[in-house]
Amino acid sequence: MKGLKEIALGTMLLVTLLTNTNISYAQEMELPMQGYNIPNLPIPDDGEYAIIAKEEKPLIAIDAGHQAKGNLEKEPIGPGATTKKTKVTYGTEGNTTGLAEFELTLTVAQKLEQELLGRGYEVYMIRDSHDVDISNAERAQMANEAHADVFIRIHANSFEKSYVSGAMTVCQTASNPYNSFLYEQSRSLSTYVLDEMVAATGCKKRKVWETDTMTGINWSQVPVTIVEMGFMSNPTEDKLMATEDYQKKMAEGMANGIDKYFLSIKEEEKIEMTE
User: Fold this and answer.
1) Are residues 36 and 98 in the same domain?
2) For residue 120, is it within any domain?
3) Which residues form the domain of 12?
4) Is residue 178 assigned to a domain?
5) Is the four-CA dihedral 213, 218, 219, 223 of positive or negative sign?
6) Is 74 helix (H, G, I), strand (E, B) or coil?
7) Residue 77 and residue 243: Cα distance in Å, rounded?
8) What would the pLDDT profile of 204-221 be if each residue is shown by its tens digit?
9) Which residues are paired to 18 by β-bridges?
10) Which residues pair with 62 in a beta bridge?
């Protein structure tokens, strides 16, 4: 018997060992994210074998922000926090279209879901309807429990000055007291998603806002970003975001950003393997 001494593959893989063409011997195993030493995996001597590695696409958790009825009860902004915020609000609405934010976010979330499924990703939707009561902390915990690889929270902005426009993303700071270990990944995810959404839509690029005030970020145990798609208080942006064509562009841009985020992880892993 031979032994498979080392496999160094960059993402979650399902490895199947086959002998000859009649699959007289096969073994499957799930491997973690880094390189691996597997000294005791036997391979028969009676023929050639192949290692067939099937990459498992990441699981994307998508949270369509807000809901039809807000819940004004309070919850801790992070695990063990004494500071509390409202569990979940109704959100804003278009000052021209009258479209509710909770309706817009779910529409775009569902478009992003279909876009990602078409690219081979797995998708976990935090909500699929408006008639829910899920707090911001609970939404993050749902993504955690689903073992999502990233958590995308979709929102829209509003401001008292109607000329303000543009898209932004939000992540935690490097000193976040609840999940600072995710800062670099969340920052990277936020940057890629923002850049690609701006490229897809042509909207104004604002910034990646780093803050530790967001309950849904603080409770997350996976890389997370809030996507503020645009300002519903801006008449032009409000009308654009209400159109199916622009919604599709926003979803495609987010998906492109997610693609680039995971591609960057693979590139980093390749560099680590050669060092």
Assistant:
1) no
2) yes
3) 2-55
4) yes
5) positive
6) strand
7) 34
8) 999 999 999 999 999 999
9) 26, 50
10) 125, 152
